[in-house]
Backbone:
């Protein structure tokens, strides 16, 4: 049976609010996700909240299913008010449902590259909105997951989780330094496709092989020169206007759809 919390001073409220900070997420091994749709998609993917907050008076069959799953797994469902939800999420108009989840393991060695033909690799990505959008793209194209290389933004930040619109729960996530990633990649099959401004090869020119790993660089700097040299092929998306490049997440989506469309055409 859900209990009620309405006091800002409640220790659990303070603990969960602290998950907006990266150091606390790492220390606790927890992160937050918001919204009935996202939490329902997480549940369908097998992820049950450890703690579930929902607004007083909120009733919906999907919420009932979340409450039952949370309590059935030994978690806690808590009815609260809009002020508490605002304090937890930091949004002026918070969602009426908020879940606290255990962070996923991000060990690269645990990835099974044979489980998908396409993977996305992001190097030194800094913007949580881009990371979330790339996760959504990965879900849309049926990628196996996202591999974060070097110092990337935290995929479990409130902003990244929000931007992923639930794809965080459907995509595998791994993190590694560049050298570790290269060793892992070269230990098996896989074509590394780098997106770069330092090539004349149009992104539609190569015939992409399976499995394919699309590598996108930092939003401002792109890929380091040494990283580009490691790629099996470098491709460039033609820019017909005044801009010199696309947003990192958009470039990832354009390239990913070219790869899978080639495969779809056989």
Residues:
């Amino acid at each position: 049976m859900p209990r009620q919390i309405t006091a800002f001073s409640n220790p659990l409220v303070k603990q969960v609010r602290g998950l907006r900070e990266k150091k606390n997420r790492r220390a606790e091994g927890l992160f937050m996700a918001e919204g009935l749709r996202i939490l329902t998609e997480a549940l369908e993917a097998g992820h049950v909240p450890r703690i579930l907050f929902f607004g007083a008076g909120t009733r919906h069959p999907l919420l009932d299913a979340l409450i039952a799953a949370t309590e059935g797994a030994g978690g806690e469902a808590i009815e609260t008010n809009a002020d508490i939800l605002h304090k937890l999420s930091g949004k002026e108009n918070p969602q009426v449902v908020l879940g606290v989840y255990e962070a996923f393991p991000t060990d690269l060695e645990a990835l099974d590259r044979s489980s998908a033909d396409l993977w996305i690799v992001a190097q030194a990505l800094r913007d949580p909105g881009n990371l979330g959008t790339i996760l959504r793209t990965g879900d849309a194209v049926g990628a196996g997951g996202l591999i974060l290389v070097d110092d990337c933004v935290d995929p479990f930040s409130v902003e990244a989780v929000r931007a992923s619109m639930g794809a965080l729960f459907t995509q595998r996530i791994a993190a590694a330094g560049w050298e570790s990633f290269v060793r892992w990649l070269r230990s098996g099959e896989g074509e590394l496709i780098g997106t770069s401004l330092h090539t004349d090869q149009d992104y539609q020119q190569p015939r992409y092989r399976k499995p394919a790993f699309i590598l996108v660089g930092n939003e401002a700097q792109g890929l380091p020169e040494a990283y580009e040299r490691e790629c099996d092929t470098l491709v460039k998306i033609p820019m017909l206007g005044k801009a010199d490049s696309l947003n990192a997440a958009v470039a990832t989506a354009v390239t990913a759809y070219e790869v899978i469309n080639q495969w779809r055409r056989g």
